[in-house]
Design goal:
- With 271 residues, the protein is an alpha/beta fold.
- It has a single domain, classed as 3-Layer(aba) Sandwich (Rossmann fold).
- Helices cover 46% and strands 14% of the residues.
- It has ten helices and nine strands.
- Helix 4 links the parallel strand 4 and strand 5.
- Helix 3 runs parallel beside helix 4 and helix 4 runs parallel beside helix 5.
- The chain binds NADP nicotinamide-adenine-dinucleotide phosphate.
């Protein structure tokens, strides 16, 4: 993929899609700055990456769900060298009615899924201005970005923001050495669902789940090719295309049917 020798900042690198992207980039010879809240899990992923190929791995423990954490992480990342790739992957959601949860959880989601992602994108684009080397921004949205999703109202809206923001950035940056790519995964087998009080969806949602490795590969390939948007998986591509052909209320109703009703208790927020 022609990424060897570059240096990537990966958020949410302690598990799931972020950890899979980190391992993939390590195999490509990319030095890594891995960030998340859990140091032990980050250290484990860093050790796995270093075992795959002789790349440098730095670890930054930070809570991107708190104000200004994006800038703190950025400054810590560039303290030991320039960053050529930013992978804005950290994110969470809950599978519950909006009136069944509390504002602190929403505020943290907006901060993590939107504000920190924009903050890191801003710092990256500013740092690359006038720099000749090829640079890549990869922002993780979701197929939830394609329609409203009852029981995941704020999460899907946050991912619609990520998609629109990243696709517009892609268009603005066209012809420059920096590219912006948006990935919209469908259901992926990670810890996301347990943290969301979910995972007991309808049969069709469970049947279309992909592995974190498959999503990571599609994402990194699309990023390296400078693509605008990638939706991993044929069923997911079809569903995102299909919503353009039906009224918005129907797409929203369908999303609710596909997910089914929440059956699991919502776990307390991790700290
Ligand atoms: N799994 C799916 O079905 C699916 C579908 C579409 C989109 N996505 C998106 O894919 C991305 C990765 O999710 P995943 O599926 O890989 O889930 P995951 O395994 O739960 O990973 C989430 C990552 O985000 C980090 N994170 C969570 N809260 C954080 C905070 N406040 N500050 C810093 N880091 C935080 C977690 O690390 P710590 O807990 O160590 O902080 C973890 O590394 C998310 O943006 C998610 O919305 C997932």
């Amino acid at each position: 993929m022609n990424l060897a020798g570059k240096r990537a900042l990966v958020t949410g690198a302690s598990s799931g899609i972020g950890a899979a992207i980190a391992r993939l980039l390590a195999a490509e010879g990319v030095d890594l700055v891995l960030t998340a809240r859990r140091k032990d899990a980050l250290d484990r992923v860093a050790a796995e990456c270093a075992a795959i190929r002789d790349v440098r791995t730095d670890v930054i423990v930070a809570d991107l769900g708190t104000p200004s954490a994006g800038s703190v992480v950025w400054n810590a990342a560039i303290a030991s060298g320039p960053v050529d790739l930013v992978i804005n992957n950290a994110g969470f959601g809950y599978f519950r009615r909006f009136d069944a949860t509390e504002w602190t959880r929403d505020a943290e989601m907006i901060q993590l899924n939107i504000t920190s992602l924009v903050e890191l994108s801003r710092r990256f684009v500013d740092a690359r201005r006038g720099e000749p080397g090829r640079a890549y921004l990869l922002n993780i949205a979701s197929i939830g970005a394609y329609q409203s999703v009852p029981q995941m109202a704020l999460y899907a809206a946050s991912k619609a923001f990520v998609r629109n923001f990243t696709e517009a950035l892609h268009d603005e940056l066209r012809g420059s050495p920096v590219s912006a790519t948006c990935v919209c995964p469908g259901g992926t087998r990670t810890a996301f669902h347990a943290a969301a009080g979910a995972g007991d969806y309808s049969w069709i949602a469970n049947a279309s789940m992909k592995s974190a490795e498959a999503v990571a590969l599609a994402s990194v390939r699309a990023m390296a090719r400078g693509k605008r948007t990638v939706i991993p998986g044929v069923i997911n591509k079809l569903s995102c295309f299909g919503v353009r052909l039906v009224p918005r209320w129907f797409a929203s109703w369908m999303a609710g049917r596909v997910l089914g009703q929440p059956k699991k208790a919502l776990p307390p927020r991790a700290t």
